[in-house]
Specification:
The complex is a heterodimer of chains A (109) and B (193). With 109 residues, chain A is mainly alpha-helical. Chain A has 3 helices and no strands. Chain A starts with a helix and ends with a helix. Chain B is mostly helical. Chain B has helices at 3-14, 18-39, 46-59, 70-86, 102-113, 123-135, 139-150, 155-162, 166-188. Classes of the chains: A mainly alpha (109), B mainly alpha (193). The A-B interface holds A 8-9, 11-16, 18-28, 30-31, 33-34, 37-42, 44-46, 48, 50-51, 53 and B 16, 18, 21-23, 25-26, 29-31, 33-34, 37, 46-47, 50-51, 54-55, 58-62, 107, 111-112, 115-118, 120, 122-124, 126-127, 129-131, 145, 149-152, 177, 180-182, 184-185, 188.
Chain lengths: 109, 193
């Protein structure tokens, strides 16, 4: 059974090789260019327009600039907020200090 | 095409010299047409596919650095375009003996009973039979088989055309051969109607 399947496999390969050799010997030449094909291609190329040489690069640059602007704006916002919170928290800090010393005075003998 | 000439034509085409662009199409058409034929598109016509490839080539022409031969650069665009275009086309699951013409059946009989090379008058039918068998393969396998066995190109040449590694090409060819052998054995079997 094994021997049979091996031999049929080898035959299959041999047949395929002979078939491919015979097919290759009828190799067709490249088909001729249809009349006006070159003109049509050039016209279509011009109609579609050249793909922007650095279209993707330009898009990435725009995205990067936009992201940088947002980053700077948000950083400025955060900075302002921190400054404001520092300023506004100062009176509270003083009030806490006053209350603290008042309590200390009252509690201490 | 010589490299300096190719570079000059590309540079002129990029300067919107229509004559140079047309000359590029004329020079590259045999190469592109052969690759398109090797893919055997079923739904898309060969001419439409070739046109699609040339439009892509011109749209990407600014990317051509001149470091590789223009033919290789164009071949890779052609191969990728063909594979993308044909990927959706499903391969037929199998070939039946009833799908064959009388001449093709005679070739199958001949292969089964004799180990001699096929006679010259059987070569056309052999070609058609191979076309049927190739139709059953995946587009990439079809291309590899066409380039290696029908166009008789070396693995190194196929590498340059497709950009695939030698091992990938050999694996694809091996798988394709296995599928073709299996189909050929199936249609050769006498019990097959």
């Amino acid at each position: 059974m094994n021997r049979r399947s091996q031999s049929s496999g080898a035959e299959g390969g041999g047949s395929l090789d002979r078939l491919l050799r015979a097919a290759a010997s009828t190799n067709e030449d490249a088909p001729e260019m249809p009349y006006g094909f070159d003109t049509r291609v050039v016209a279509l190329w011009q109609a579609h327009g050249e793909r922007e040489p650095n279209g993707i690069a330009r898009l990435i640059r725009h995205v990067a600039v936009f992201a940088a602007v947002i980053l700077i704006a948000s950083a400025a916002g955060v900075y302002r907020e921190v400054i404001r919170s520092d300023v506004s928290s100062e009176p509270f800090a003083n009030q806490f200090a006053i209350a603290d010393s008042a309590i200390a005075d009252e509690v201490s003998p | 095409m010589e490299q300096p000439e190719a570079r000059a034509l590309v540079a002129a085409a990029l300067r919107h010299d229509d004559d140079a662009a047309r000359e590029l199409v004329r020079r590259l058409h045999p190469l592109v047409a052969k690759l398109v034929r090797a893919h055997r598109p079923r739904r898309t016509s060969e001419e439409d596919l070739a046109q699609m490839i040339f439009i892509k080539v011109f749209q990407k022409l600014w990317q051509f650095s001149g470091e590789v031969p223009l033919e290789h650069w164009v071949s890779r665009i052609a191969v990728n375009t063909c594979l993308n275009q044909i990927a959706a086309e499903k391969a037929r699951p199998e070939l039946r003996r009833s799908d064959l013409s009388e001449e093709e059946e005679a070739v199958v009989e001949n292969l089964a009973v004799s180990s001699d090379e096929l006679a010259p008058d059987k070569r056309l039918a052999a070609r058609q039979l191979v076309e049927h068998l190739l139709d059953l393969l995946k587009p990439a396998e079809r291309l590899v088989m066409d380039l290696l066995y029908l166009q008789r190109r070396s693995v190194a040449e196929v590498q340059k055309i497709t950009g695939w590694s030698a091992s990938r090409i050999k694996v694809r060819a091996f798988r394709a051969r296995q599928k073709m052998k299996k189909q050929l054995a199936k249609i050769s079997a006498k019990e097959n109607p």
